[in-house]
Every structure is written in C-alpha cells, then in structure tokens.
Amino acid sequence: MSKPKKNSQNPRLAALRVLSDVLDSQQSLAESESLSQLRDSRDSAFAMHLAYGVLRWLNALEWLSGRLLSRPVKKREREVKRLLLLGLQQLWHDNTASHAAINETAECARLLGKPWAVGLINAVLRRFQREHDQLLSELQQTEYRFAHPEWLLNEIRADWPDHWSSVIDANNRQAPLWLRINRQRADETVLRTDLKAAGFEIEDHAYARDCIGISPATAVGNIPHFGKGWLSVQDPAAQLA
User: Fold this and answer.
1) Among 3.20.20.140, 3.30.70.1170, 3.40.1190.20, 3.40.50.2000, what is the CATH number of 177-240?
2) Which end of the chain lies in a sparser environment, N or C, as judged by fewer CB atoms within 10 Å?
3) pLDDT at position 191, please?
4) What integer pLDDT is reported at residue 132 of this predicted model?
5) In Å, what is the CA distance from 137 to each residue of 64, 133, 142, 153, 226?
C-alpha cells in the first residue's frame, strides 16, 4: 500500500472538506475553497470528481451505507460517515482500483485522529464488494436509485409525466466540460500530453475541429495551460455556430 499523503495534500480528505463546506456550511461547490491547498492538479481534479460524485448520488449512497452498517454512525462522527460515502462512491461509480479505494479511504480516518474507525470503514467497504450485486439489485427496487429528494421527484413527475425518468437520468449524468483550443497560441501536442499527464481523459468532438471534452470536469484553474490562453470553455454548439 502506498504511503498516504499528509492531510493538506490528501485528495480524499480534500473531498471530505468540500462535502463539509456544502452539507454543513451550505456553500455551493463553486464557493468551496477546500481544494486550494492541493498543489498537484491531478489531486485537485480527483478530489473534485469524488465530491461531485458523492453529492450527485448522496441519497443512494446514504441508503447503501445504512444497509451495510449494523448500527448508525453517531451524528457527531459525520466525517466517518462521509468517508464511508466517499469509499462507496469510488467502488460503485469510479475507476479507482478497489484496494486503493478501500485502504486509502480507511487510512483517512487515522489521519483525522480516529484510528478506531479504520477497521469499521475497511469492513463496510469490503462487505459492499462482496455483496455488490445483491445490494444494487435491492437499491433498484427503491426510489433511492433515482438519487433525487422526494419533493423534487414529485415535481418532475408532475411536470413531465411521460418523460420524467429520462429527465432524472439526464440529471444524474455529469455534464461534459467542452473546451475550445486556441490554435494561434496552443501547441496541441504539448497540450494533449499535459492534459493526460494531469489525469484527464480527452474526447474529440465529431464535428467541431477545435473542440475537445475532458473528464473528470474540474475548475478551469486545474486545467493545464488554461491560464496561458491555450483553451477556453465553449459548448460545441456555440463553436459550430
């Protein structure tokens, strides 16, 4: 197992701080400054990706954690509960290797001064691994699978009675981040190399020649060469207009 990064540079702990900003302080994701301490743009992109994922699937992740815990985590231990959600998100929706998702998420509890929670997090996440198919099958029988609060589900069903499920599916998909390459400034070979080195996947648009999509989506300050004017954020439709 790799040695965990110290607290200020640990992307999972940074994601945990973002969750606290949003869920406890009612900040928006854009307002949170909890990623600013991360010096590596890859860590910043990963932390934002995790935080967005947990918030997108919060209702479903809460249901899963409730099924996996023999008793609820005490309210004062919100950090431990949210580490469980971060771990479940990685195992369910992310490409993170399972051993890293489990071990490094559990070790975050030790970094927070909660060594008693390391074994708990490890055991819960490993149980999810073992019972993955059964748990997700059970989830599909509940409304938690939609990952929307009940009031919003009811509003969408009322407004779009014939298409509400398509609206929900679209809401649960991460919006792509489309960029326009400034070919007067950018060295495209260097740009693509540095984007991949920073941990981004690149998608070329089928029709817009200067358009690329990157994932995971992130703040523009984390995108290599953005500040030098090599790239700008622009939807493909606008680029084709």
Assistant:
1) 3.30.70.1170
2) C
3) 96
4) 94
5) 11, 6, 9, 21, 43
Whether the CB-CB separation of 196 and 165 falls below 8 Å is answered with no
The burial of 20, by beta-carbon neighbours within 10 Å (0-12 exposed, 13-18 middle, 19 or more buried), is given as: middle
Q: What are the angstrom distances between the C-alpha of 4 and each of 10, 50, 57, 104, 133? A: 7, 17, 26, 7, 30
pTM: 0.75
* pLDDT the model gives residue 44: 81
Token duo for residue 208:
């817009």
pLDDT of 1 reads 46
Instruction: List the chain residues with pLDDT less than 70.
Output: 1-6
Contact 89, 57 (CB under 8 A): yes
Are 183 and 211 in contact, with CB atoms under 8 Å apart?
A: no
pLDDT tens digits for range 221-234: 778 999 999 999 99
Task: With H, G, I as helix, E, B as strand and everything else as coil, classify residue 90.
Answer: helix
Beta-bridge mates of residue 203: 213
CATH 1.10.940.10 for domain 7-141, yes or no, is yes
Res 184: pLDDT = 94
